[in-house]
UniProtKB/TrEMBL annotation:
<dbReference type="InterPro" id="IPR050738">
    <property type="entry name" value="Sulfatase"/>
</dbReference>
<dbReference type="InterPro" id="IPR000917">
    <property type="entry name" value="Sulfatase_N"/>
</dbReference>
<dbReference type="Pfam" id="PF00884">
    <property type="entry name" value="Sulfatase"/>
</dbReference>
<feature type="domain" description="Sulfatase N-terminal">
    <location>
        <begin position="1"/>
        <end position="389"/>
    </location>
</feature>
<dbReference type="InterPro" id="IPR017850">
    <property type="entry name" value="Alkaline_phosphatase_core_sf"/>
</dbReference>
<keyword id="KW-0378">Hydrolase</keyword>
<comment type="similarity">
    <text>Belongs to the sulfatase family.</text>
</comment>
<protein>
    <submittedName>
        <fullName>Arylsulfatase</fullName>
    </submittedName>
</protein>
Length: 516
């Protein structure tokens, strides 16, 4: 899993960044064009890990950060700021089928108490960051590195999280195979790349140093045309409107800074791909490649945090210091080509993920390199892995009920059956942003906080207009009413509460934290 990467950043999804290893997996596997995430890092991870909607898993908003363990605990079941213990994780479920369970990378599902950590939630081995982000070169407490259940001090001057996560993943697989060569393994490798801070090795940045001086508008057009040629985008869908001022309005000095920010971001994606190549090479060398299902996915749309021109001091770029260093709204707009909005929001740019599935032993050769147009979403991963592995997803835990899986198995699509897997609506809610999809229709609402605007549903025919440029709500009020009623019924039964109520809790928590 990558972190905060845009839909079109990979080469096999229309991007210019060099990603030959993921492109190769796509060429001998399949790509999903309509796979959906949960709009934000930790809600997405909660859905992936439990097979449920994030509110069912206790992370309807955010996970409590290491700096304040009460910040996102709103004292209601759907918003506790940590993964609900009354859920199953992928690791716990796959153990029922005899799997060794391994994890490296970003957890972000609760860290205040050890019972929230990976080893206590089903993983046999863990190496990574428990919180939602860290310095790539010098991760330090409380956003430092944990090995198993212990804090690790990093002293290697050449340390880089992306490399370390891969190296430990390979080490964990190797150890498990030495102990029992026939025992299957499940690896969850959760990179923090390319989430801010913008940090990458110089030799990788150099590859992109001169690439982005033409600006975000030019980049969006280039990607849009490539995506049409690749069949990822229908040429009847217009490129969404540029969501920022023109590149040409910036001074030469600012253009140089912004081109560098984008170059570092590209280098983070490039370095991740190099590491995925390292893992694939290991699998091939040890005859594990053919019968290993590799799934690559991203956790939310590109990140516009930090404003139009990014956050953090430019003086910190290309150093090993700093934490909040981002590339800004203009480049996020390009990363999400051709879709609208970003991480946090539930228009297509916020919730659309690249998904590559590669499994030579099972995916028919006739499917290699093809696009799967049917839609799915993160809870489907649990259902798929249960289906494929023969694992047991029990509806009880410690004598108490567990919610049924919210997803459907995608295995029929991997076998070449071109039929929808979802015949019931699927839903989103994050920070008051709402969406529901059924068939070709999607109703979506953008939260208008304090702007005096009426909250209202928009309606789009995704098959005809996936870039969400032609709102059909006025023409099809009955369709809107039907989908809105379905959304409300889902919210009422899945621990989703009105966002103003949660905002009041958030502000109260922030006030309490400041008063100490």
């Amino acid at each position: 899993m990558s972190d905060d990467m845009g839909y079109s950043d990979l080469g096999c999804y229309g991007g210019e960044i060099e990603t030959p290893n993921l492109d190769s997996l796509a060429a001998t596997g399949v790509r999903f064009t309509q796979f959906y995430n949960g709009a934000r890092c930790c809600p997405s991870r909660a859905s992936l890990m439990t097979g449920l909607y994030p509110h069912q898993a206790g992370i309807g908003h955010m996970t409590n950060p290491s700096e304040n363990f009460t910040q996102h605990d709103y004292h209601v079941p759907g918003y506790r700021g940590e993964m609900n213990p009354q859920t199953h994780t992928l690791a716990e479920v796959l153990k029922t089928a005899g799997y060794t369970t391994l994890m490296t990378g970003k957890w972000h599902l609760g860290m205040e108490r050890k019972e929230q950590w990976p080893l206590q939630r089903g993983f046999d081995h863990y190496y990574g960051i428990l919180d939602g982000g860290a310095n790539y070169f010098r991760p330090t407490y409380p956003r430092g590195i944990t090995l198993e259940n212990d804090t690790v001090n990093i002293e290697d001057p050449n340390y880089y999280t992306t490399d370390a996560f891969t190296d430990h993943a390979i080490q964990f697989i190797d150890q498990s195979k030495q102990q029992d060569s026939k025992r299957p393994f499940f690896l969850y490798l959760a990179y923090n790349a390319p989430h801010w801070p913008l940090q990458a090795p110089k030799e990788v940045i150099d590859k992109y140093r001169d690439r982005y001086h033409a600006g975000w508008g030019k980049l969006r057009e280039e990607r849009y045309q490539r995506m049409i040629q690749m069949g990822l985008v229908d040429d009847s869908w217009p490129l969404s409107k540029q969501d920022i001022f023109d590149w040409e309005t910036l001074s030469k000095e600012k253009q140089d800074e912004m081109a560098l920010r984008r170059a570092i971001y590209a280098a983070q994606v490039d370095r991740m791909d190099q590491n995925i190549g390292k893992l694939v090479t290991y699998l091939k060398k040890h005859n594990l490649y053919e019968n290993t299902l590799i799934v690559f996915i991203n956790d939310n749309g590109a990140c516009a945090e930090g404003g139009d021109l990014g956050g953090g001091k430019k003086e910190n770029l290309e150093t090993k210091i700093g934490f909040f260093l981002s590339y800004g709204k203009g480049w996020a707009n390009a990363s999400n080509t051709p879709y609208r909005e970003y991480k946090h929001w539930v228009h297509e740019g916020g919730i659309s993920s690249p998904l590559i599935a590669h499994w030579p032993a099972k995916i028919p050769q006739k499917l290699h390199g093809t696009l799967i147009q049917q839609y799915g979403f993160l809870p489907d991963i649990m259902a798929t892995f249960v289906d494929i592995s023969g694992a047991t997803y029990a509806l009880q835990k410690d004598g108490k009920p567990i919610p049924a899986m919210a997803g459907k198995s995608l295995s029929s699509l991997l076998e070449g059956k071109n039929k929808p897997v979802h015949d019931q609506p699927i839903f989103w809610e994050h920070e008051g942003n709402k969406a529901v999809r059924l068939g070709n229709f999607k109703a979506v609402m953008k939260w208008q906080d304090g702007k005096g605007e009426q909250q209202h549903w928009e309606l789009y025919n995704i098959q005809q207009d996936r870039t969400e440029q032609h709102d059909l709500a006025g023409e099809m009020p009955e369709q809107v009413e039907t989908l809105a009623a379905a959304w409300q019924q889902w919210a009422d039964s899945h621990q989703v509460l009105p966002w103003p109520q949660m905002l009041d809790s958030l502000h109260a928590n922030e006030h309490r934290h400041k008063s100490f």
